[in-house]
Amino acid sequence: MDARILARLRCPVCGEPLAETTAGTARALQCPRRHSFDIARQGYVNLLAGRAPHTGDSAEMVAARADFLAAGHYSTVAAALAEAARQIAYGVDGPTPAPPAAYPLVVDAGAGTGWYLAAVLAALPDAVGLALDVAKPALRRAARAHPRAAAALADTWQRLPLADRSATVLLNVFAPRNGAEFHRVLDPAGALLVVTPAADHLAELVDALDLLRVDPAKADRVAGSLNAHFTEESATEHRARLELSRTEVATLVGMGPSAWHADPARLAERIAALPEPVPVTLAVRLGVHRPR
């Protein structure tokens, strides 16, 4: 593991620093109190202090997300995150950033495949990144998402396996929010970037396919989960019009929360009835939150 990332990690049991150990072909991270955490052959490290309460997205959902994102349909979101992170890490002025006193660490909480993290790291040439997720199929991909990224199995509802004030940028893209822990691990000069769906996100598919709707109180719930620890500095909406094939629509539905709820046969019938190309609205809100 990259030493710059390892230096920021902490044992999820006792909070002590971690070091990499090797026994034969087996690799692990271990703290001075000998709590040990295996590094999987796919490259991610298991930093759970106990058993996870859930396993996260299925392998099928992760594969659908990887295919859809790789096609570039959500590049608008990635570009917005990358620019916001660049301004946080380096400031607004100057196309060539001066190296900061400490290299930036970008942490993606609920990272999935690490696609957004990779886009941000591409915009921050001296930064390193850490993808946190509870889904092993996602972490197998996240561990390979970018040469300067690492991946760890961690439950973001619990204490994060990171040192206090160790992250420069925290990404939270369509994922749960742990305000207290985000505040603990974020540098006071850093920021939390939260991406949530706008009211009309994927509206055409919601109506045609009877998918889960965006909660009208979404913004209030996000604020309620963060306001005790963060102040929202700015918020912007980012939109794009997608033209999708029926196959791409099926992939998009399969990667999101509706995959858990929709009847597969009925959903396939409805998708087959859509005219091609299928017009779809991409609409998200990006909030920049500073620690209080």
Summarize the structure.
This protein is an alpha/beta fold and 292 residues long. A hairpin with a 5-residue loop joins β2 and β3. The relative contact order is 0.15.
CATH architecture: 3-Layer(aba) Sandwich
Corresponding CATH superfamily: Vaccinia Virus protein VP39
Q: What's the total number of strands? A: 11
Strand order of the largest sheet: 4-7-6-5-8-9-11-10
Distance between the termini: 32 Å
Silhouette? globular
Profile the largest sheet: 8 strands, mixed
Spell the H/E element sequence: HEEEEHHEHEHEEHEHHEHHE
Low-confidence stretches: 94-101
Number of domains: 1
CATH topology: Rossmann fold
CATH top level? Answer: Alpha Beta
Q: Note the beta-strand portion.
A: 25-35%
* Structural class label: alpha/beta
Helix coverage percent:
25-40%
- pLDDT averaged over residues: 89
Rounded radius of gyration (Å): 19 Å
Compute the number of helices. Answer: 10
3D structure, described in words:
Helix 2 (59-70) packs parallel to helix 5 (136-142), helix 2 (59-70) packs across helix 9 (246-254) and helix 3 crosses helix 4 (115-123). Strands 4-7-6-5-8-9-11-10 form an eight-stranded mixed beta sheet, sandwiched between helices. Strands 1-2-3 form a three-stranded antiparallel beta sheet, with no helix packed on it. Helix content is 30%, strand content 27%. The chain has one domain: Rossmann fold (3-Layer(aba) Sandwich), CATH 3.40.50. The chain has helices spanning 3-6, 59-70, 75-90, 115-123, 136-142, 179-185, 203-209, 218-226, 246-254, 264-272, and strands spanning 19-23, 26-30, 36-39, 45-46, 105-109, 128-133, 149-153, 167-173, 186-197, 230-244, 278-291. With 292 residues, it is of the alpha/beta class. The protein is built from ten helices and eleven strands.
